[in-house]
Amino acid sequence: MSRPATGGHFTVSAGDFRLELSFAAPAGSILVLFGPSGAGKTTALRTIAGLARPESGRIEIAGRTVFAGNESSDSGPTWLPPHRRRVGYVTQQNHLFPHLTVWQNVSYGLERRRREPARRRVAELIERLRLDGLEERRVWQLSGGQQQRTALARALAPSPDLLLLDEPFASLDMELRRELGAELRDTIAQLDVPAILVTHSREEALALGDRVQIIDAGRTVAEGPPLAVLEQPGQGRVARLVGVENLLDMRVSARRPQDGTMVCAAGERTLETPLADGCAVGDAVTVGIRASDIILASGPLPQSSARNTWAGVVAGVELRPPGYEVALDCEGTLLRCHITGTSLEAMGIEAGQPLWAIFKASSCFLLSE
Asked: N or C: which end of the chain has fewer CB within 10 A?
């Protein structure tokens, strides 16, 4: 039997800032709120948790109405305080009690914590989140990853109806973030609890999210499956928010319906893109290309299926974990390309070196404003 619905809509203000949000979080899945700092992501979590009071709207958690404004309830306004909402909340700071052990931290929110049912619950979560053998350690004796596991176990111990996660892995290194992210997904699916995760990391949103909402300046500007929203966004505003590295202003110079492509040009530079309805020859367009979709080569590849090959000169190389970003100057058009450290070393890439950028037509996508 599936859990009752969690979701709603609300408007909340904090000083001059105003957030309007609608959301839905199915059980066993992760809804990602993605966007830049100051967009309203943390305010959204605080409002759902009951730490900020909306001006209007309705919020339901596992089918229970925890907030309803006058306009959304025949029986008048409804307001449940945070401690009655059955919400688990994990932040980047984790807020563990330093004077307590791992076992005591995890069991802190449980009633009758010394009774056998509570002890079984704590033992189950300690095993699930790989904290075995650490039960008697204090917080200062734990690594960053162990602290975040403990914070997650404490949030899950009372069997919450909703889990809220505010950039819980932001202070951890990339490898540990991936490891804990995989554990988080498995745990949420197995416990069948809905979760809302705040992040401004595109990689984290892609890896963890079942659905993504992009928030900017207090409004949702795009939402949908992570790959559709984050990899090839349809709007220029969204593309800039999600960090599309290459946005090229061009004009349509030819349409090839028989191939399903069209040619776009900027000066002498041309490239093939997927055919777009509503674009006529001469129309101005913005073409987006992900840096990770570009292959760098010492020369043009013979008999390649890639339709776009641009010659350029390396303008700079910067560290972009887990690899590097190479800026390639293609006769005045700068392409940003991602490459692994192994490839960078093997190719001996350095500033001033001539290289070729090679990418498929399907790697290009058109943006609207």
From this structure: N
